[in-house]
Amino acid sequence: MAYESISHMATQQQFGFTTPTKPHPLDAFSLDGVYRTNWGGAVHADSLEVLRSLPDDSIDLVVTSPPYALHFKKEYGNANQEEYIEWLLPFAREIRRVLLDTGSFVLNVGGAWVPGKPTRSIYTYKLLVALVEDVGLELAQEFFWYNPAKMPVPAEWVTVRRIRVKDSVEFVWWFSKTPFPKATNRAVLRPYSKDMIRLNKKGLQATKRPAGHVINESFANTENGGSIPPNVLDEDTPTDLLKFGNNAANDPYTRRCKEAGVKIHPARFPAILPEFFIKMLTDPEDVVIDPFAGSNTTGMVAEGLDRRWIGIDMEASYLEASRFRFDDFDGRGPSEVEVTVSKNKTKRRRESSRAKG
Ligand SMILES: C[S@@+](CC[C@H](N)C(=O)[O-])C[C@H]1O[C@@H](n2cnc3c(N)ncnc32)[C@H](O)[C@@H]1O
User: Fold this and answer.
1) pTM of the model
2) Do residues 306 and 207 share a domain?
3) How far is the CA of 114 from the centre of ligand 1 (A)?
4) Residue whose C-alpha is closest to residue 109's, from 160, 64, 43
5) pLDDT one-digit tens code per residue, 110-161
6) Which residue from 234, 244, 296, 336 has the highest number of Cβ atoms inside 10 Å of its Cβ?
C-alpha cells in the first residue's frame, strides 16, 4: 500500500470531532487550567511544582524543550551553562518518577558556544551523562533536528572571521524509564524513495556491501507501508502540519497573534518534533505532558492526534497567546473548545458564531 493512502486513512480516522473516553487530564490530576480543550489543558505554574504533585507511574510521554543555556539570555531567562544542569536535573528526576514503565521523555536542547571563544560548550554532553548516570534514565536513542533556518552565529566566528560554519542541528534525546518503552516505528514511516520503488520493480539480487552487511531481496520490498525513518527530523519528515498549523511566518498561531497585537513566542519548536514522538511512542488517549509548553505546540499536536495532554508554562502571556492554536482547530472551531478564561473571549465567540453562519 502506498504511503499516501495510509496517511489519508489515518487523517480520516484521527481528526474527526472526538473526546476522550478516559477522564480529562486536568480532572484526573486535579489541576487548574487557564484553558481546556476536549483533550487537554494549559496550566500556568512552575512545572516543577506541578510535576511534584503528580502520582508516580502515571504519564505516557513527556516531550519538551526547556530554555537553553544560551550565552545571550533569552527574555524568559536562561540558567547559565554552569548552573544549567543543576537547574534541569530536579525536573528530570520528577519526570522519571511520574513516567510509566512504558513511558518516554523526549528532550530538545540546543548547543552553545563558550563565551568569547570559537569553541563549543560541552554542557549538552555533561547534561546527557547526568540524565543517564545521575537521574537513571535510559537513553533510548539520540535524534537530531536539522534546522537550516538557524542564524549564522556567533557572527564573530561564522560571518566575520569565517573560521566556523553555521550550527544547524539541535539535539533531541529520547529517554525512557526502562529499556523497552512503548514504541513503534510503524507509526512514523516515510514514503518510499524513488530509488526504492525502482529497485522493487526491477528486483534486487542478494549482495554484500563493502562494510559486510548482506543486502537481501526483501531490502527493496515496498509492501511494508513506508520506509523506516532516520533519526534526523527535518523538513522532509512527513507531517500532518496542515491539520496542526505550523511554525511558518503565516501559520494560524502567528497570524492571529499579529492580528491581536499579542507577542509571538520567541523559541517555538516545529510541530513535527512532538508529532513524530507522539505518534511513535503513544496510543490515542495516552497522556502527554509538556512542562515548558511556551506556545503549546505539543498540546496542539496532541489534540489533533487524540492524546490527552497537559501543557505547563510559568509565563502567562505565552499561554494566553497559545489559545490561538485551538481556534478553528480542524474545523472544530473555538465553540468546541471549552475556554475558561480569555481576554479574547468576546472576539472569539463572535468569530465562532460567524463561522456557523
Ligand atoms: C524554549 S521555550 C518552549 C517553547 C515551546 N516548545 C513551543 O513550541 O512554543 C521554554 C519555555 O519554558 C518556560 N519555562 C521556563 N521555566 C519554567 C518553569 N519552571 N515552569 C514552567 N515553564 C517554564 C518559558 O516561559 C518558555 O516559554
Assistant:
1) 0.84
2) no
3) 23
4) 64
5) 998 888 999 999 999 999 999 999 999 999 999 999 988 889 999 999 999 9
6) 296
